[in-house]
Amino acid sequence: MNRLPRDATVDQVCEALDRDGYAIIEHYLDEDDLRRKKEDLERVLRAIPGGRNDFEGFETQRIYSFFAKTRAFDAQALDPLVLGTMERLFGPGFQLSAPTGIRIGPGETAQNLHPDDIIYPIARPHPELVVNTMWALDDFTEENGATHIVPGSHKWVDQRPDASTKSIQAVMPSGSVMFFLGSAFHGGGANTTDKPRLGVIIEYCAGWLRPQENHVIGVPKAIMRELPLRLQELLGYGIFGPFVGNVDGRHPRKYLEDAREVSDGVVV
After folding, report:
1. What's the pLDDT tens digit per position in 107-144?
2. pTM of the entire structure?
3. What CA–CA distance (Å, rounded) separates 170 from 264?
């Protein structure tokens, strides 16, 4: 299992990702922070239904429009080690793609192994399009659905998983974080226990791609205006290169600052 120290550097994370497609740092969050995050996500989950298909998991709850519903992971989205790693892999202008809270319930079956960058019709091999961080709010165990990952599969071209494919499970204690490449084959594990397993994926993509989620619509402007500027940029109010993402020829953050949409006399 590819584990790095809590004070790991960007070089160490990127070396592990290049070699194996994933890296785990245990106990990256302290206990008080972990408790607060879990309490807030439990609040959100009370209003979240179960999954709609086998891929989402019928016994799994997923928190979409994540940054519209909680402030619990703002700091992790902006974590210096995380952003430094993304900068190294993507260059400037990268974005948040599909940040999601995932609670795998008792009785959930295992997901099929898949790469997250499969949504983009770009032939392998290619530069990295998607990179994930998975934050464990509960212990991830073999029994409760710890993520399966196939080490080295980010280097596959035409190969696909079959019955002979060997995966490992990202077993890690609560408070840990796993980095993994969107080109690596992985999938949620089966939860054979009587308790749910909670984690958060904060997913990033290259700046020239369309993110999975439309954060500009999904996060209300009243909330967006209160976020740190860097988080606003990651959620769509940024520019890639000189022009991509502009609004009326201007930086989209200027639009966010100026725009005052009024509905029934209420500023939104």
Report:
1. 999 999 999 999 999 999 999 999 999 999 999 999 99
2. 0.93
3. 50
